[in-house]
Amino acid sequence: MDLFDKILKSVGGPIGQHQKWSHGYFSYPKLEGEIGPHMLFNGKEHLVWSLNNYLGLANHPEVRAADAQAAADYGMAYPMGARMMSGNSRHHEELENNLAEFVGKESAFLLNYGYQGMLSIIDALVDRNDVIVYDAESHACIIDGVRLHMGKRFVYQHNDIESCEKQLERATKLTEQTGGGILLITEGVFGMSGAQGKLKEISELKKKFNFRLLVDDAHGFGTMGPTGAGTHEEQGCVDEVDVYFGTFAKSMAGIGGFVAAKREIIEYLRYNMRSQTFAKALPMPMVIGLKKRFELLKAKPELREKLWLIATTLQKGLKERGFDIGISNTMVTPVILKGDLYEATALTRDLRENYGIFCSIVIYPVIPRGIILLRLIPTASHSLEDVQRTLDAYSEMGEKLKAGHYKNVNEPAV
């Protein structure tokens, strides 16, 4: 299952190139305009709902032109070194300054990879005397960062403020003995459930407890808030978030990420994040391409509006058809079904082979036995026709599941 989930998340690959997995081939045709959600899988056209391309920028003509020109000007090798040595450029600094201003912070620092960056942020911010308090359903990059911590760590029940407060009480008692501090970590948008982290309510706890708040807003950056600045903008608590993390892999359909905070925090991280200090800087074509993506993110609010039109129409249609989409209050759309592992794989294959619908599936042990979760990721490149096609397919699939059809399928899905 873990491998399958990683495979499904990796569909944002090179345009016009085949990627072979145990589940077949995806082909990205070279088209004019934006990359659409309709792609070839084993030679058949499929409608894909598992692309990390919220704003549809993956193949935007201006993005492709910027990428191509930057590659022609610099190649993929430059800059030749880590940021602290010979790997800095005005393009890196301009992007950092623009990102910091956009998300409401004094300074920002580019990260080569989001996962690696988040893990390294945690490692740099705490020592053995500090205590980490974190949400139980945090992303794997947070969990791995917490595991590296040599001090104490306390987990609170998912989005449960009462539980969070209890863990802060425990952490406070401990830091009174160690002389350390408390780092509270949560997400802006939880990528599986689609629920927003309770940033505003957590921020209110600062009146009672002394802690710093680190928010992983991978799914919220570019999608949430009046300007797309993030979930902290959406909830009106920009200043209360001490350290803000965003990725380029979702809304900006790129590689890497950034961390933003007060200037002194960012300067500390520049010299203490080992994954960045001892790694080559982001290549120039990527940085210049990211600048173009960011420019479009800010200048074209209609892309975000289209994303939300698709998301709300899809979610409304699913609920009207009796599907459980959980507690999502964002664009992430989980569809929660009841069934065993065999049924899960059979219905996924049915959707893929007979309806041309490709989406991520999450099963045990990530979620409890007897539950099937199909995660749909709406994007600005989807159309209302795509939504209707998917709703019709899901209605038929749901009836088959209730009737026990997928228990009787002879050939297991692969």
Report on this structure:
- The chain is of the alpha/beta class and 414 residues long.
- Helices cover 40% and strands 17% of the residues.
- The chain is built from 14 helices and 15 strands.
- The protein has helices at 2-9, 61-74, 90-102, 114-125, 140-148, 161-178, 199-204, 231-234, 263-272, 274-277, 284-299, 301-320, 341-354, 384-402; strands at 19-21, 24-27, 38-41, 44-48, 107-111, 131-135, 152-156, 182-187, 212-216, 243-247, 257-261, 333-338, 357-358, 360-362, 371-376.
- The strands form three sheets. Strands 5-11-10-9-8-6-7 form a seven-stranded mixed beta sheet, with helices on both faces.
- Helix 12 packs parallel to helix 14 and helix 13 crosses helix 14.
- The protein starts with a helix and ends in a 12-residue tail after the last helix.
- Residues 1-34 have low confidence and may be disordered.
Blueprint of the fold:
Layout: H1 2-9, E1 19-21, E2 24-27, E3 38-41, E4 44-48, H2 61-74, H3 90-102, E5 107-111, H4 114-125, E6 131-135, H5 140-148, E7 152-156, H6 161-178, E8 182-187, H7 199-204, E9 212-216, H8 231-234, E10 243-247, E11 257-261, H9 263-272, H10 274-277, H11 284-299, H12 301-320, E12 333-338, H13 341-354, E13 357-358, E14 360-362, E15 371-376, H14 384-402
Parallel strand pairs: 4-13, 6-7, 6-8, 8-9, 9-10
Antiparallel strand pairs: 1-2, 2-3, 3-4, 5-11, 10-11, 12-15, 14-15
Helix pairs in contact: 2-11, 3-11, 4-5, 12-14, 13-14
